[in-house]
Amino acid sequence: MSSSEFSARQGARSAFGAIFRFALRDLRGGLRFYGVFIACLVLGVMAIVGVGATSRAFREGLAQQGATLLGGDLSLGRAQGTPDEAERRFLASRGKLSQIVVSRAMARTPEAAQATLVEIKAVDAAYPLIGAAKTDPALADDKKFSQTFAE
User: Fold this and answer.
1) Are the beta carbons of 55 and 48 closer than 8 angstroms?
2) Model confidence over 27-74: pLDDT tens digits?
3) Measured between alpha carbons, how far is 57 from 21 in angstroms, rounded to an integer?
4) Is-contact 118 106, C-beta < 8 A?
5) Burial class (CB in 10 A: 0-12, 13-18, 19+), 72
6) Which residues pair with 104 in a beta bridge?
7) 97 and 76 Cβ atoms separated by less than 8 Å
8) Residue 67, exposed/middle/buried by CB under 10 A (0-12, 13-18, 19+)?
9) What span, in angstroms and rounded, lies between the C-alpha atoms of 91 and 78?
10) Taking the chain, what is the end-to-end CA distance rounded to the nearest angstrom?
Protein backbone atom coordinates (compact mmCIF):
# COMPACT_ATOMS: atom_id res chain seq x y z
CA MET A 1 0.00 0.00 0.00
CA SER A 2 1.41 3.36 -0.99
CA SER A 3 1.64 6.28 1.37
CA SER A 4 -0.95 8.26 -0.61
CA GLU A 5 -3.54 5.43 -0.27
CA PHE A 6 -2.75 5.19 3.45
CA SER A 7 -3.25 8.92 3.99
CA ALA A 8 -6.52 8.87 1.98
CA ARG A 9 -7.89 6.08 4.19
CA GLN A 10 -6.77 7.88 7.34
CA GLY A 11 -8.48 11.06 6.11
CA ALA A 12 -11.73 9.19 5.45
CA ARG A 13 -11.61 7.56 8.90
CA SER A 14 -10.97 10.87 10.62
CA ALA A 15 -13.81 12.54 8.66
CA PHE A 16 -16.20 9.72 9.60
CA GLY A 17 -15.01 9.96 13.20
CA ALA A 18 -15.67 13.71 13.25
CA ILE A 19 -19.18 13.22 11.87
CA PHE A 20 -19.85 10.50 14.44
CA ARG A 21 -18.61 12.74 17.27
CA PHE A 22 -20.86 15.61 16.11
CA ALA A 23 -23.86 13.23 16.01
CA LEU A 24 -23.15 12.01 19.54
CA ARG A 25 -22.78 15.60 20.76
CA ASP A 26 -26.20 16.44 19.28
CA LEU A 27 -27.75 13.47 21.06
CA ARG A 28 -26.50 14.55 24.50
CA GLY A 29 -29.64 16.60 25.00
CA GLY A 30 -31.79 13.51 24.50
CA LEU A 31 -34.08 12.20 21.80
CA ARG A 32 -37.11 14.25 22.81
CA PHE A 33 -36.14 17.03 20.39
CA TYR A 34 -36.23 14.55 17.54
CA GLY A 35 -39.81 13.45 18.28
CA VAL A 36 -41.37 15.83 15.76
CA PHE A 37 -38.83 14.81 13.12
CA ILE A 38 -39.46 11.10 13.69
CA ALA A 39 -43.24 11.65 13.70
CA CYS A 40 -43.04 13.50 10.37
CA LEU A 41 -40.89 10.76 8.92
CA VAL A 42 -43.34 8.06 10.03
CA LEU A 43 -46.31 10.06 8.70
CA GLY A 44 -44.60 10.58 5.34
CA VAL A 45 -43.81 6.89 4.96
CA MET A 46 -47.40 5.98 5.87
CA ALA A 47 -48.76 8.42 3.28
CA ILE A 48 -46.52 7.03 0.53
CA VAL A 49 -47.47 3.45 1.37
CA GLY A 50 -51.19 4.35 1.49
CA VAL A 51 -51.15 6.08 -1.89
CA GLY A 52 -49.23 3.18 -3.42
CA ALA A 53 -51.64 0.58 -2.06
CA THR A 54 -54.70 2.57 -3.18
CA SER A 55 -53.39 3.09 -6.71
CA ARG A 56 -52.47 -0.60 -6.99
CA ALA A 57 -55.98 -1.58 -5.87
CA PHE A 58 -57.56 0.73 -8.49
CA ARG A 59 -55.31 -0.61 -11.26
CA GLU A 60 -56.04 -4.22 -10.37
CA GLY A 61 -59.78 -3.56 -10.09
CA LEU A 62 -59.89 -1.88 -13.49
CA ALA A 63 -57.81 -4.66 -15.04
CA GLN A 64 -60.17 -7.32 -13.67
CA GLN A 65 -63.53 -5.58 -14.14
CA GLY A 66 -62.91 -2.80 -16.65
CA ALA A 67 -64.97 -4.36 -19.42
CA THR A 68 -67.89 -5.00 -17.06
CA LEU A 69 -67.77 -1.42 -15.77
CA LEU A 70 -67.83 -0.09 -19.33
CA GLY A 71 -70.44 -2.60 -20.49
CA GLY A 72 -68.06 -3.64 -23.29
CA ASP A 73 -64.44 -3.75 -24.37
CA LEU A 74 -64.27 -0.24 -25.77
CA SER A 75 -66.18 2.98 -25.29
CA LEU A 76 -66.24 5.70 -27.95
CA GLY A 77 -67.91 9.00 -27.26
CA ARG A 78 -68.80 12.22 -28.98
CA ALA A 79 -69.98 15.48 -27.45
CA GLN A 80 -72.88 16.08 -29.83
CA GLY A 81 -74.80 14.04 -32.35
CA THR A 82 -74.76 10.38 -33.24
CA PRO A 83 -72.40 8.55 -35.59
CA ASP A 84 -73.44 8.60 -39.22
CA GLU A 85 -74.18 5.42 -41.19
CA ALA A 86 -70.62 5.03 -42.54
CA GLU A 87 -69.13 5.28 -39.04
CA ARG A 88 -71.69 2.83 -37.70
CA ARG A 89 -70.93 0.32 -40.50
CA PHE A 90 -67.19 0.66 -39.83
CA LEU A 91 -67.63 -0.04 -36.12
CA ALA A 92 -70.11 -2.88 -36.71
CA SER A 93 -67.60 -4.60 -39.00
CA ARG A 94 -65.23 -4.86 -36.03
CA GLY A 95 -67.62 -6.27 -33.41
CA LYS A 96 -70.97 -6.00 -31.65
CA LEU A 97 -72.28 -2.49 -30.98
CA SER A 98 -74.47 -0.92 -28.37
CA GLN A 99 -75.56 2.72 -28.50
CA ILE A 100 -75.99 4.89 -25.42
CA VAL A 101 -77.33 8.44 -25.30
CA VAL A 102 -76.56 10.54 -22.22
CA SER A 103 -78.26 13.81 -21.38
CA ARG A 104 -77.87 16.12 -18.40
CA ALA A 105 -80.72 18.20 -17.06
CA MET A 106 -81.98 19.96 -13.96
CA ALA A 107 -84.79 18.19 -12.09
CA ARG A 108 -86.78 18.74 -8.93
CA THR A 109 -89.81 17.35 -7.18
CA PRO A 110 -92.94 19.53 -6.89
CA GLU A 111 -92.20 20.06 -3.17
CA ALA A 112 -88.50 20.97 -3.60
CA ALA A 113 -87.47 24.59 -3.94
CA GLN A 114 -84.10 23.86 -5.56
CA ALA A 115 -83.38 21.81 -8.64
CA THR A 116 -80.51 19.34 -8.83
CA LEU A 117 -78.38 18.18 -11.73
CA VAL A 118 -79.37 14.72 -13.04
CA GLU A 119 -77.96 12.55 -15.79
CA ILE A 120 -80.31 10.49 -17.93
CA LYS A 121 -78.87 7.53 -19.82
CA ALA A 122 -80.81 5.78 -22.59
CA VAL A 123 -79.48 2.43 -23.80
CA ASP A 124 -80.46 0.13 -26.64
CA ALA A 125 -81.53 -3.51 -26.36
CA ALA A 126 -77.95 -4.80 -26.86
CA TYR A 127 -76.63 -3.04 -23.71
CA PRO A 128 -74.59 -4.24 -21.84
CA LEU A 129 -72.40 -6.30 -24.17
CA ILE A 130 -70.52 -7.69 -21.14
CA GLY A 131 -72.11 -8.30 -17.74
CA ALA A 132 -75.71 -7.61 -16.82
CA ALA A 133 -77.72 -4.47 -16.07
CA LYS A 134 -79.21 -4.44 -12.56
CA THR A 135 -81.93 -2.11 -11.33
CA ASP A 136 -83.22 -1.30 -7.88
CA PRO A 137 -86.02 -2.37 -7.55
CA ALA A 138 -85.35 -5.40 -9.75
CA LEU A 139 -87.36 -5.59 -12.96
CA ALA A 140 -89.39 -8.63 -13.95
CA ASP A 141 -87.93 -10.47 -16.95
CA ASP A 142 -90.89 -9.66 -19.20
CA LYS A 143 -91.12 -5.94 -18.26
CA LYS A 144 -89.11 -3.03 -19.56
CA PHE A 145 -87.86 -0.15 -17.46
CA SER A 146 -90.26 2.30 -19.13
CA GLN A 147 -93.25 0.02 -18.42
CA THR A 148 -92.33 -0.36 -14.74
CA PHE A 149 -91.74 3.29 -13.88
CA ALA A 150 -94.28 4.95 -16.19
CA GLU A 151 -97.11 4.19 -13.78
Assistant:
1) no
2) 776 666 677 778 888 999 999 999 999 999 999 988 888 777 777 777
3) 46
4) yes
5) buried
6) 119
7) no
8) middle
9) 14
10) 98
